[in-house]
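Protocol step 4 of 5: obtain the predicted structure for the target chain.
Materials: sequence only (see below). No template structures provided, no constraints applied. The aim of this step is simply to have a reference model before the mutagenesis design in step 5. Sequence pasted as it appears in the construct record:
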Amino acid sequence: MQEILEFARQNAFMSGLWVVLLIALIVTAIRSKSSPIKELNNQQATVKVNRENGLFVDIRSEDDFKKAHIHGAKSLPAAQIKQNKVSSIEKYKEAPIVVVCQTGNTARGAANQLKQQGFEQVAVLSGGMSVWRNDKLPVVSGK
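Step 4 output (structure tokens):
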């Protein structure tokens, strides 16, 4: 224990940085667990969409969507969600919606906005299209 305190004293900057990172990690974990927006893995998302007549909403750019997207997904770029231009998915207000981005990082913000706009069952695809493709799940090109 004495050695740890001595190290911390001699390396104040590194120790302080470590404490800040630890606190940030704890806060992120607590927010994630308490958030009404849940993260679903590929299997959970597929089951939710298929069994409950849900929808994958792809918030990536139109070009990325055209290159490859999940079968049946609707393209709705994040900017349109931010501007409340969601008429193309209005009929899914009560159905499960799984928001998809490239890596899973930007989908949470779009999902929160959809929740604020009255969509009841909104979730995020954990890892986004990167994980979907890495798991060798089917994608559609074009459209």
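Step 4 remarks: Strands lie at 38-40, 55-58, 74-75, 96-100, 121-125. Residues 53 and 95 are 7 Å apart (CA to CA).
Proceed to step 5.
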